[in-house]
Design brief:
about 450 residues; alpha/beta; 5-stranded parallel beta sheet; 4-stranded parallel beta sheet; globular
Length: about 450
């Protein structure tokens, strides 16, 4: 409705065109806006009025994402975008009716526009942070949605936010991992309590609500009900939220200052190189599931564990707070991150690396050697003969009677077996030692 009252705020989906219009799923009329219009100053004026004139304890922003709800190639053709991009890059914003009409040079120009527009948004976020702090020392909270989006978010946005809304919980395990990820980054986190899938809804979830509330609190998050009005009309269901919130309230003083002592840091992974995903009879695995599995393995083994943002690998002073770094199929590491990991190990830190960790370049291409070979003391094997035939025909069932297992070389007893999922055969280099083998 804003763009009807203030058409000058609108995003232009084409030269001399109007904003994209929708009902935002099943809501009220929605028209896209652009930060490179007078909307920016109106927004800043609103924020200043709120923090200056009202007694508030915090500010929530839905999401800091350039081109929110913009369709197609995500370009705006308002005067502010066209003139600003021309000044910044010396280029014109291309527009065609059909995607196939864009040339490679024009697509490259659009990519540069997206980068320029992200920089614009970051600067606005910084302005908001400075403006709020000039009036009140209150937290700024934004919607990052879920841990994967936090892991891939612009770090410059994270720097000016104090907390974020965790919108989609998925499983209890992923909830614990996601809350841990935010807390390890020094951010507060408000996870919705609701269904495992997509948006929380007013449904009868019973004791599952209790599990979600307690799990969120255990890992340092502040659980919130996305749709609390449902309990107003359904009083008999209030016990499922009244009891856990009552326990937390009763022991609020006991929790003051409580934190997760850093021990094992599992780096949150989400980007799987093309062709690297593996499938078995019933399951698949990729980089995302590998880091989740590593977190779960520590958790189930009662090992103090935190899921950490990959930016920790760029901050040696933060990395050294942990005793062990766990890279679970974290496929690519920059030269600077490799140097930081080497220093971490040299200073006494432990390193656990699995599957394809450090075996791929930045473009997702597999390399001949592990970048961390000097620490891991193994090299990939190019299978031949019987081994090649075995690998070509092997399919993990993950829980079936024909799975492969790892056993300790010196004590191959039943209790020492580890079920083997998809694996990468390696040869041991000088200085390396085999603990378990298939």
């Amino acid at each position: 409705m804003l763009t009807r009252d203030y058409p000058e705020y609108a995003q232009r989906t084409r030269p001399d065109g109007g904003p994209a219009r929708s009902h935002m799923f099943v809501g009220e009329d929605h028209g896209t806006v652009c930060w490179n219009t007078p909307y920016r100053q109106a927004y800043l004026d609103l924020v200043e009025r709120l923090v200056r004139d009202y007694d508030i304890d915090g500010l929530y922003f839905d999401t800091w994402y350039a081109g929110y709800f913009w369709p197609g190639r995500g370009v705006c053709y308002c005067d502010g975008c066209r003139n600003g991009f021309r000044t910044a890059a010396g280029l014109e914003l291309p527009w065609h009716e059909h995607d196939a009409q864009y040339t490679p040079a024009e697509l490259a120009a659009i990519d540069r526009y997206h980068a320029w527009n992200r920089d614009t948004l970051v600067e606005i976020a910084r302005q908001v942070h400075k403006l709020v702090r000039s009036h009140k020392n209150i937290p700024l909270i934004s919607n990052i949605g879920n841990p994967t989006r936090m892991a891939s978010a612009d770090p410059r946005i994270l720097e000016v936010m104090d907390a974020f809304l965790y919108e989609r919980g998925n499983s209890i395990l992923e909830r614990a991992e996601g809350v841990s990820l935010a807390r390890a980054a020094g951010l507060g986190v408000w996870p919705y309590v609701g269904e495992y899938n997509n948006w929380p809804r007013v449904v009868y979830n019973g004791f599952d609500f209790q599990q979600q509330i307690f799990t969120t609190a255990m890992f340092g998050g502040a659980p919130i009900l996305a749709l609390p009005w449902g309990y107003v009309q359904h009083a008999k269901n209030r016990r499922f939220v009244e009891y856990p919130f009552g326990i937390l309230k009763q022991h609020e003083r006991d929790f003051a200052g409580f934190r997760n002592d850093p021990y094992v840091a599992v780096v949150y992974g989400s980007r799987t190189p093309p062709g690297h995903e593996q499938s078995g009879t019933w399951w698949k695995t990729d980089v995302r599931l590998s880091s989740l599995g590593a977190f779960a393995a520590c958790l189930y083994g009662h090992v103090q564990v935190s899921s950490v943002h990959e930016g920790l690998l760029d901050a040696p002073e933060k990395l050294r707070n942990y005793r062990v770094l766990y890279l679970a199929d974290f496929t690519h590491l920059s030269d600077s991150r490799i140097a930081n990991i080497r220093q971490f190990v040299q200073d006494g830190g432990g390193l656990v690396a699995s599957y394809g960790s450090s075996l791929f370049d930045a473009a997702g291409h597999r390399q001949e050697r592990f970048a961390l070979e000097d620490l891991m003391r193994v090299a990939p094997v190019h299978p031949a003969g019987e081994l090649a035939e075995t690998l070509a025909s092997y399919r993990s069932m993950t829980g079936g009677p024909y799975d492969l297992y790892l056993a300790e070389r010196l004590r191959p007893a039943l209790e020492t077996l580890t079920p083997l999922w998809s694996f990468l055969p390696v040869k041991v280099l000088d200085g390396g030692e085999v603990w378990k083998t298939s």
